[in-house]
Amino acid sequence: MKIKNNHVLWTVYFNSIFTRKEGRRLSNRECVPDPKLNEIEEACSMSGLNVIQTKQAFYPRTQLKNTGYVIIEKTGEKNKTMKIIGKNVRKIRGRKKL
Questions:
Q1: What is the dihedral of CA 96, 52, 17, 61, to 10 degrees?
Q2: Spatial CA neighbour of 13 closest among 27, 28, 23, 21
Q3: pTM of the full predicted structure?
Q4: N or C: which end of the chain has fewer CB within 10 A?
Q5: Is 70 exposed, middle or buried (0-12, 13-18, 19+ CB in 10 A)?
């Protein structure tokens, strides 16, 4: 999927249960188990990123589990943006436990 001037962020990128071979993009300590699409969307808005679209969909490598993706405007490198979003998803999970 090619979308110009935007980043596509699948929930699998932030899922600590998946291996890197299965599609995870960040280290385990930067991820959470089974992140929800609304958590990633909230983390994007916490980071000041403009969310263009969210959609429930199957990640191409793992079509057994319905995940989803968020499309955001490009603001810099994708990996740095994902690390910031990963931190915010962990913060959101921490608030829910309290």
A1: 160
A2: 23
A3: 0.86
A4: C
A5: buried
